[in-house]
Predict the structure.
Amino acid sequence: MDNSLFIKVCIYSYINMVRKMAVRRGVSRNTMIIAVAVLVIIVLGTAMFLLRPGEKPPTEQPPTGPVYADTIIIGTTDRVSDLDPANAYDFFTWEVLTNIGEGPFVYEPGTIELKPGIIESYEIQEGGKVYILKLRQDVKFADGTPLTAEILKYSIDRVANIEGDPSWFVLDFVESTEVIDDYTLKITLFNPVSFYPAVLAVPTYFPVNPDAYPFDEITPDNTAGSVGHYKITTWVRDQQLVLEANENYYGDPPKTPRIIVKFYSDSTALRLALESGEIDIAWRTLDPTDIQSLQNREDINVIEAAGAYIRYIVFNTNIPPMDNPLVRQALAAAVDRGAIAETVFFGTVEPLYSLVPNGMWSHIDAFKDAYGDANLELARDLLRQAGYSEDNKLKVELWYTPAHYGTTEADVAALVKAAWEATGLVEVTVKSAEWSTYLEYTRKGQLMITLYGWYPDYLDPDNYLYPFLHTGSNRWLGNPYSDTEMDNWLDEAQVATDQATREALYQQVQQKLAEDAPIVPIFQGKLYIATNKNVKGVVLDQMMLLRYWLIYKELENVNPVNVSLMTNIFLVIATAQIFIATSVAKASVLKRRIN
Amino acid sequence: MVSIKAYIATRALLTIPMVLILLTFVFVIMRILPGNPVLALIGMKASEETIKSLMEQLGLNKPLWQQYFEYIYNLLRGDLGRSMIWGRRPVINEIMNRFPATIELTIGGFIVSILLGLLTGMIAGVKPYGKIDATMRIYSIFVYTLFIPLIGMIFQYVFGVYLRILPVGGRIDPTLLPRQITGLYTIDSLLTLNFPAFISAVRYLILPSFTLGLVLSGVYTRLVRSSLLEVLSQDFIRACKARGLPNRIILFRHSLKNALIPILTMMGLQFALLLAGAVLTETTFSWPGMGTFLMERIQYRDFTTVQGTIVFYALFVALISLLVDIIYAYIDPRIRY
């Protein structure tokens, strides 16, 4: 419909109505003025809406070549804990730190290959006990201070001194640090550690400027940053974080000079923000249902990648009947991973048959080889061997925590229960406890069967096996699974420098894990990121950290988002308003007759 | 006749036991619940020794009564302590970072609820027992039953995703952040004459305050209606009519002013409800205020922060209701304390 005609019709009919009313009922001047004022407001509102500026007038577009946006807005439901490498120990804060800092080693984006970062070269001496790091000479902090070995030493010693949450990355490994010359640092370890370069890549080892980070104090809102691609320009906690290119960065400048991170309260809010165009990227964490519905939209890209995040069931082997290996094996055999992945997560996760995630070296499908998947026959056999029958069912308690692992957790527990009960020989009671409570009870060893998840600290099989299976290291699970042979293998693998030897050891460990079944892996998370379709350069890998400096957004010619449709909708609303206003005016006339 | 000063003093004194009782309640509840901040934050990966030493640092290894009295002692000196997680910032700073956002939303919701409530209540009260009156009464019940996250989401969808005329989450366009003076972005942007920021702040404020205000407006509708009816049936109104005053004057100058007195009391009471409703609204609209903050910190068992926030809330609500009482006395000369 022709809009201007429509508006004219509206105005005429409105004036006409008011005129008639005025004649018929003898409306006072004031009422007429109010009525006209309402009309003016509506007309002005409509005009403002119609004439509001578009995102970018097309005339500003240079005629040739694609144009890139200078700002990208990323939305997240995560929170920044402490903007201080000495105390940050969660994924999102690490992501921010990775974009504003850089450690001695970095991961090649898109792979899990390590390469030197702020170091030019390094040397390993004394059989892996000593690391000599030669720093690049062109590394500078955002304020221009050049990086020296002295500063790197200060940063590492500071972590040890503060003893914050991630301080074990230093305290457990490093015996001493020593400055050899301005650009050479010597790190001596307690014992040779085969995966130490991976430890040197965590943000805990990022250099910090001694002027901005005091030696013995955590600075949770420190925006001084480090030596990375970006620097922080605005930081309002839980509201927004603005990063701008660090012009002192030694490498290529980032593709997008400004990145804004906006914080949302939940997955739905995040999804709505993406759909409304308020943000360009929705990242960590969208619920499976939101991912699914975003996948159906044409203006949005959903990118998927393998994550290094794993979920598993823990059997407390100290609580009968879980002390019986036959029972554990039977339950391990009955778990239906496919059903959980498809029904609860709509395929947004993949089944996992070992604690070492798919795609990581040394991974074997140990549980699949040993039990298959949803193998009810085997489960029944094993349960009968253990002395259970239809009349004498195995009774177990399954615990989960409702919020920490997302809203899907109750469904996961329900499906685990269903799979076990499908054997006809098991009776499962499902119980839940809030995260903090859950941890405390687990640690005290009071929960029979629990559901847990693991985000790695560094990408090495060691991080997926040692904390779970080594005697004493798994106290956090209240699960003192202890086996001398297992301990020996894990210790050997930690110090062996030859990858083939380590791989063989880890495979042995995984086989034995499947055999003893104290922990049953269920699935491995995939990473999902939803972006506006013009956003390019998103690289996801098992590090699960987004590299902001690689992302860019192509600007198109202005897209008049169905302006004609929206104008009409708006006009309909405006008309409705006119009628409402009229009836209000009428009412005010009627008021004269109150008795 | 007791002076208003004495009244204020009594009220202020009564606030102290009230806050103490509330605080004790929260203190005990937080600690009866299993779990503690150390576990909640790094519980999975920390070693036994780390947990022990952190508990000691936070004073959580001391007997409960000792923790309690130390807390009260510090509180009386005006020290709310430090947060137990994430860098251990002073609780008062944390609250002050969040409080302006909540106040901005609460005031927005307050204005919307009063405007809607007055409008609907007047329409209903002027012509009672008719169709319009029935509609307004249904409206008041209907909006009262609305679930904030649901109605908020519908607004977000309609105005944010479909029409794209209003933002769905946050407080202001991140690029337009005004210089912080009061922390209320609408005020700050005006003070710094930053009009684009002001417009942006208002646009971000519309949906959340409308959601909150809509839900709470139903109470006013009924109250304004009944109060207006009562006033309209009084003799002086009849006298006004007899004198031939226009209805408009009778309604706005004589009836409404008198009808507003009980509504004022309600405003004071509603303010507490507004703060409570703000918790849900904040979550729905990712509004970085006290509500989202409190929810998050309860999950992490951040004892000191939760206690501090609640004490702060209690004092604030007490202050508001005291203010309302004072305004009450000012408006209605018959009231004497």
User: Anything to note?
Assistant: DSSP finds 13 helices and no strands in chain B. Residues 31 and 64 of chain B are 9 Å apart (CA to CA).
